[in-house]
Amino acid sequence: MKARPPQNPARPRTGARVAAVQALFQAEQSGESVETVLDQFVRHRLGSIPGQEGFEDGRVEAADVSLFARVLRGAATNPDDLDQVITQHLAQGWALNRLDPVLRAILRAAGGEMRDMGGPPARVVIKEYMDIAHGFFGGEEPRFCNGVLDAMARSFRAEEFARQ
Whole-prediction pTM value? Predict the structure, then answer.
């Protein structure tokens, strides 16, 4: 899975989120546990190695490892509940398994992070994952992703939107 890096890949929190999307994609495709993939990423794919070129080689040079782990574990905690929330915000008749696997990984990572009430505001989470969606997709997927992320944020963090 290759991506164009977000506009500023040197941002450790953005790097953590990109890596989390890649790790969730890998876990789904390989059938490995999130903990196994987390360990593989920490040991082999996070940080810089001379001669490796970052995103294009599947590496994420700048990544906040604690945020990366928190996002992955957030998505892996009660995954059926998270998938149910995502599915509730898809168009009627759409199943989660019909989505592109990278798009599923983006929605799961964002949802896992939004469920963490101690994390950044929902709008920040949406903005970060929208940058990632634009890095992977050039068509209608980012717009679709934005609608689902906004609806999920209102489910998980209704109080943030009630204060407007």
Answer: 0.86
